Amino acid sequence: MSKVIADISMSLDGFITGPNDNPKLPLGEGGTELHSWLFSGDKPSKHNDFFQLSELNREVYDEAVDQTGAMIVGRRTYDLVNGWEGSHPVAGVPVFIMTHEPPENYPQGHTSFTYVTDGIDSAIKQAKEAAQGKNVSIGTATVIRQAIKAGLLEEVFLHVSPVLLGGGIRLFGGRELDQKKLEIQQVIDGKNVTHLRYRILK
Fold it and tell me: Where is coiled-coil annotated (predicted)?
C-alpha cells in the first residue's frame, strides 16, 4: 500500500541546505556534506552508478528507491537545479512539482514532470495515482511541512549527516506546525550518516 514519506538528508543541527543556496551552489555553503553518504564507498547504486556507496548505505538507498513510485518537490528546488536538466537522478520515477505557475520553458529529458498548481492535497493525490501502489517520496522542506500540516505525511526518513552547518534552510523551521508525536521505526548506523525512520502518530 502506498505511503507518503519525507525522505531527505539533514545536518545534525537541522538544516537541509547550507547558507546562501543559489543556482551555482544549490546545496548552499558546505551543503554537499549532507550527501557525502551517497559517495561513501565503491558500491554503485543499481539505480544510478553515479552514486558510489558503502555496502550498507547502498542497501538503504536502493531499497528506498525500489519502494518509490513518485516524488514531490517544490518549485524553488526545481529552479535551483534547473529541473535536473530534464532527467532526475532517480530514473523512471515521475516527479510532481508544486508551483503557483508552470514554467514557460523547461528542460526536456527522460523524467516525466507534472506541475501542480492547486495545492498539497492535489499533488499527493496525483502522485499516489502515478505511484501505482508504491510510496510517494517528498524531498523538499516546504512541501514536507505542508504535508505534515495537512495530516497527509505518514513517515519521516531522515539521513542525518555528522555536520553542523550553522545556517541554511531548516527542515522543521517556522511556527506553522502543530506538535506531533512520532514513533521510531528504524535506526541504521551507516558510513558518514545515521538513517532514522519515524512514523507520524495520528
Answer: none
* Identity of the residue numbered 111: T
For residue 112, what is the DSSP state? -
With CA atoms as reference, report the closest residue to 3 among 133, 92, 120: 133
Cell numbers placing 194: 545515521
Give the long-range contacts of residues 172-181, CB within 8 A, separation 24 or more: 172/14, 172/141, 172/145, 173/14, 173/141, 174/145, 176/145, 176/149, 177/145, 177/148, 177/149, 178/149, 180/148
Alpha helices (H) in the chain, listed in sequence order: 55-66, 75-80, 120-131, 141-149
Other CB atoms closer than 10 Å to residue 181's CB: what's the count?
9
Grid cell in block for residue 118: 492547486
- Write out the CATH class of domain 4-16+29-200: alpha beta
pLDDT digits (tens, 9 = 90+) for 99-118: 999 998 888 999 999 999 99
What are the DSSP calls for 27-69, one per residue? T-TTGGGGGGGGGSSSEE-SS-TT-EE-HHHHHHHHHHHHTEE
- Note the pLDDT of residue 202: 84
Instruction: Check residue 74 and give its pLDDT.
Output: 96
